[in-house]
Amino acid sequence: MSAPIADAMKFYSADRALAFHTPGHKQGLGAHQLLKDLITSEGLRREVSLMDELDDLHDPRGCIDEAQRLAAGLWHADHTIFFINGTTAAVQTMILSTVGEGDTILVPRNAHRCVNSALVLSGARPIYLAPDFDPDFNVALNVSFSTVERAVEKYPHARALILTSPNYYGVAADLPSIAKLVHRHNMLLLIDEAHGAHLQFDDRLPPSAMDSGADMSAQSTHKLLGSLTQTSMLMIRSAQIDFDRVRRVSSMLQSTSPNYLLLASLDIARLQMEEGGSKLIGRAVDLAQQLRTEIKKIGGLRLFECPSLDPTKITVNVRGLGLTGLEAEKVLRHRLKIQCELSDPANVLFLITYADDQTVADRLINALQGLKYGAPSTLPPTNDSAQLRTAYPPASAAPMSPRQAFYAPTTTVERRQAIGKISAEEITFYPPGIPLICPGEEITSELIASIEENLAVGRRLVGAADPSLLTVKIIEE
Ligand SMILES: Cc1ncc(COP(=O)(O)O)c(C=O)c1O
User: Fold this and answer.
1) Whether the CB of 171 sits within 6 Å of ligand 1
2) In a domain, 369, yes or no
3) pLDDT of the residue at 438
4) How far is the CA of 196 from the centre of ligand 1 (A)?
5) Are 361 and 417 in the same domain?
6) Do 330 and 370 fall into the same domain?
7) Residue of 84, 85, 114 to test ligand 1 pocket, by largest number of atoms within 8 Å of CB
8) Where do the H-state alpha helices sit in 132-253?
9) Domain check: are 404 and 370 in the same one?
10) Residues with Cβ < 8 Å from 104, sequence gap 6 or more?
11) How far is the CA of 67 from the centre of ligand 1 (A)?
12) What domain range is 418 assigned to?
């Protein structure tokens, strides 16, 4: 077993050719000490590109081609493309290579914002599908089979359905049934599998997109496996997909100077899973199951559970302690030295990965047991998280396509005067990074109320022209 990209970098470095080429730090010779503190001297020596033996991400014929083929084999795809611009670029590639101006695509209302940017770039018209919602935990579930069934019947001309599966909280859609359904209607199934690169390595996890019959899936190798942040893979397995077009689109969206440390890290993450994926992911699932059992015993905490859940995503509702999720995150971080993946008004989410062990699990349990002593309560103890519910707009066709809205003349009005107007901007709170309003949608009073709730609980806002959201950008009438 080998890692062809890492091997090629090592080979070039070992050859000791005198560098009259990029990058300007010349294999570390000119690197600032602070950069040297971040990357070993050997890492800097190998941080090169463009040499024959290092291949070309945009026309792979050597080590990158080989590494991508090995990844395709491991993840049960026909083809794999490596991404150094994150799953953002991989999802955009799926959309731009399959739908164009005026085409209809079925999109979950809570898709990641990269889907919305792909809609602007492609000119496609989204039909938003509402995910199911758990009002008790204030967590968006996935889009149900029956919601897809209704949409497919109502919009038979749609070219594709994109789903996020599993979602941020680990809830998977019924992909095997949905794949059969959409294929019967000659639609493509594209999966944002940002949170699912590990799925196929353990039977206790929901089935992967490729194993479920999806046409393409975009995986964040960096999120739950061992590659560097910013690196992802696009998996393709379908006779209906024009692979050459997908490659050309991926090339349009990626840097012509891909960083080889990033590319090599994808290759090495694949090697790591090939060497011991089942064992490593199996251990993560075991640990997560054990944690789930123990968390259930802690008073004041409730564990999120539902069918088709990736158990390595552990969502803990803290409202029973009189805390919001955001308050719990602060206590965990600053007093108990535990950092969660995300917090929302009711919950904190912890990821268990192949990197974790029993010591880590024990520390988490200790911290959760100590949480109740951590912060002064600002809320009365309650299990009713619905009062902080995030209201997403109902599924419907937007009055303007995201692209039309993006290029239309705009004006700015006071927040409440925007009700009934068409939004010219995307408004997203982090976490979980789901747009509340997308360009082209009508701004409803429920949406304004939801924005105000999010502001009140102190979530971080991105995307809005006015960071205070006192004003909102709308389409000029
Ligand atoms: C569901 C989903 N899709 C896509 C992305 C974008 O991935 P990346 O940050 O690798 O570009 C994210 C990132 O959080 C995500 O959660």
Assistant:
1) no
2) yes
3) 84
4) 11
5) no
6) yes
7) 114
8) 145-154, 175-184, 209-212, 221-224, 243-253
9) no
10) 124, 125, 126, 127, 155, 157, 158, 159
11) 23
12) 398-475
Going from the Cα of 85 to the center of ligand 1, the distance in angstroms, rounded, reads 11
Token duo for residue 376: 């002064």
The runs of H, that is alpha helices, within 185-338 are: 209-212, 221-224, 243-253, 260-295, 325-334
**pLDDT band (50, 70, 90) for residue 396:** low
Quote the CA–CA distance of 321 and 245 in Å, as a whole number.
53
Distance, in Å, from the CA atom of 292 to the CA atom of 301, rounded to the nearest integer, reads: 11
CATH number for 371: 3.90.1150.150
Tell me the residue type at 36.
K
**Does the structure show a pLDDT above 90 at 98?**
yes
Residue range 176-201, pLDDT digits in tens: 999 999 999 999 999 999 999 999 99
How far is the C-alpha of 46 from the C-alpha of 41, rounded, in Å?
Answer: 9
- pLDDT, average across residues 374-388: 48
112 or 92: which leads in pLDDT: 92
* DSSP assignments along 242-282, one per residue: -HHHHHHHHHHHS-SS--HHHHHHHHHHHHHHHHHHHHHHH
Q: Determine the Cα–Cα distance for residues 107 and 148; give it in Å rounded to an integer.
A: 10
SS3 call for 82: strand
Pocket test for ligand 1, best of 83, 87, 107 (most atoms within 8 A of CB): 87
- Mutate which of 82, 83, 88, 434 for ligand 1 pocket (most atoms within 8 A of beta carbon): 88
Quick one: what percent of the chain has pLDDT higher than 70? Answer: 94
Picking from 194, 193, 129, the residue whose alpha carbon sits closest to that of residue 160 is 129
- Name the phi and psi angles at 316, rounded to 5: -115, 125
* 219 or 52, greater pLDDT: 219
Q: Is the CB of 428 under 6 A from ligand 1?
A: no
